[in-house]
Write a structure and sequence with these properties.
44% strand; Methylamine Dehydrogenase, Chain H; mainly beta; 4-stranded antiparallel β-sheet
Length: 401
């Protein structure tokens, strides 16, 4: 049953306006960072720990960074708090925002979204907040589940809002207001899309802007859906089901193709966009590439990640789905990439530095994350030569440049 519960913490996604604005899975949700000159190996004890902070409380969210300030959420006694740090780990501000998820695997899920002088977060109980990041004063707030006639899901809604221009995109789920666009400054509804009427599925949406029709792609309980980003009209859908209606990974896009991957035996579906984004066709599918929670990264012509049933780290050809290798013997985990290297954070607390090599899983260095509490599920972040790792109650900053 533990395997069932892990999947929901894919920990949500965002769109950014500046290169130094780090949010869910980097600046563009790919999990691929764009720094150079990073260390190609680490000492046996791991890279230098610059600082750490204990006292976040429960939670699985990752850090967001803008204007050299670090933002993170945590929960104590069922009440969530927003933390702000400087780059040296000094706590600059802390603000209680209200109830968060306390039913199982407790604490905040979604990573904060920062955009044009505003801060957005969604709690596991569906409260969506817009803050002034300088003062942490609430600009507007609403509960998207109550207001848009949707029910919460088994392990608490998990999403970071997507910002596209003046629109904030969220996925309450349900029959009528499955996917919504709100005015990011006021919270007023701009459009609502019924999608396929499924429940939300712990997935944060992806924005694809290089098609004739810019579109939003996400996974709901039973379907992958493509939505016109401007009007909210459904363009297409494709069935994607698994045992628990959990699709926790943000899709990966490249070369006119969208990779959607789920655990629990479903695996990966690669869709090719056609007709300027108005339609799709199946490029390939693979039950073996079945990542549940840790995301996948596209590096060159290959995709890397870890598997659910296989309990293996894998590499596959992006265009064909052909598996290049499967490396067993390690726990599954989250993956990001930068400067030709993979950073693999396993659920057992091992941080691995691996060459992005399609021929073999080549571990260069590794060390153990010993600080923190409970589950190793938060995705790591790279910013200005520093690797940020959140493990429950603790945040750590390691020098990797």
């Amino acid at each position: 049953m533990k395997a069932t519960l892990i999947a929901l913490f894919s920990l949500a996604a965002v769109t950014v306006t500046a290169q130094d604005n780090i949010q869910w899975r980097g600046t563009n949700r790919t999990g691929v960072y764009n720094e150079t000159g990073l260390l190609k190996s680490w000492p046996a004890e791991g890279p230098t720990l610059l600082w750490s902070y204990d006292g976040l409380g429960q939670g699985h969210s990752s850090v967001a960074i803008a204007s050299d300030k670090i933002y993170l959420t945590g929960m104590k006694d069922s009440i969530g708090s927003l933390f702000v740090f400087d780059m040296k780990g000094k706590l600059l501000n802390k603000k209680v925002y209200g109830p968060d998820w306390k039913e199982s695997y407790n604490g905040p899920r979604g990573t904060i979204t920062l955009n044009e002088g505003k801060l957005y977060l969604m709690s596991g109980v569906g409260d969506l907040y817009c803050y002034n990041p300088a003062t942490l004063e609430v600009i507007w707030k609403k509960n998207v589940l109550k207001e848009y006639n949707a029910s919460n899901i088994t392990w608490g809604i998990n999403e970071s809002p997507l910002i596209i221009g003046d629109k904030l995109i969220a996925t309450p789920g349900g029959k009528e207001n499955n996917l919504i666009a709100l005015n990011k400054n006021t919270g007023k509804l701009i459009w609502s899309c019924p999608g396929e009427g499924n429940a939300s599925a712990y997935c944060s949406p992806l924005y694809i802007k290089d098609q004739q029709i810019p579109l939003i792609v996400t996974m709901t309980a039973y379907n992958i859906i493509g939505i016109n980003a401007e009007t909210g009209a459904k363009l297409w859908s494709y069935e994607q089901k698994n045992q628990y209606d959990i699709h926790a990974n943000t899709p990966v896009y490249g070369d006119n193709m969208i990779l959607c991957t789920s655990g629990y035996g479903k695996g990966s579906t690669m869709l090719r966009l056609t007709n300027g984004g108005k339609s799709i066709e199946l490029a390939w599918s693979s039950a073996e590439l079945d990542n549940r929670i840790g995301g996948m990264v596209k590096v060159g012509d290959y995709v890397y990640g870890s598997g659910d049933k296989s309990r293996a780290w894998f590499c596959a050809d992006w265009k064909s789905g052909q598996i290049k290798y499967k490396q067993q013997g390690l726990a599954m985990g989250a993956i990001i990439a930068d400067d030709g290297m993979l950073y693999c954070y396993t659920e057992k607390g091992d941080m691995l530095l691996v060459k992005a090599n399609p021929e073999k899983f080549e571990i260069v260095s590794r060390f153990k994350i010993t600080k923190g509490t409970k589950d190793h599920w938060a995705h790591p972040v790279i910013y200005k030569g520093i690797l940020y790792v959140r493990h429950g109650d603790s945040l750590m900053a390691y020098k990797i440049k």
